[in-house]
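Let's inspect one such protein example.
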Amino acid sequence: MKLRNETEESRTHGKWYDDACGAAFAMELVGERWSILVVRELMLGGRRFSDIRASLPGISAKVLAERLATLESAGIVMRARSGPPASVQIYALTDWGRAMEPVLQELGRWAVQSPMHNPRLPLTPVSLMLSMRTMFDSDAAGGLAMTVLFEVGETRFLGRLGDGELAIERIGPEAVAADVGFRAPAAGDFLPVFYGKQPPETPGLRLEITGDRALAGRFLDLFRLPPKHSHGCIVA
């Protein structure tokens, strides 16, 4: 049995590295600049082209269109129509594309252990929500159950905690019932409280909490960053 004989222009696996390793192939699929961030911004639901670009202000319309086309051809992204009341074209992850979330979680958990990681850089609302799903301590959650409303500027998400799992979905402006609410102008405003463990009432902080304050405190205790890793050299 012969392997497929493909030209350099038409093949996908091996186009950069000529390497059978799955990790090498993964880099060929999502290793171009911006590709992983495009996938990240779609992880909590489909979005319009303009919304993706607004979340990634450093990307041009041309490059975003190219990345979406590449991801679509690879079977990671698909085009769809949004639900009512307005039906517009959106880009969404396929089932295989959504399966990248554990990969992004482990990559993020590994990277923040570096002392070079700078948490003061801009953070998108979706990135914040995914970081919560990454740094969530399911063992500490035990049998705790609640609904949580997150409002990051004009972007809203609803979290559901139960059975040791935290599910988060993007929602619209409609009213929702939640046990606890967290609201701040920007995603970075959540970090000092969720990860820095500063009291929400600390002067200068902009995170507002609504609902059951005791329950909110228990929820905040479920998030912690891994310790920083030393960059010392190993000498043989």
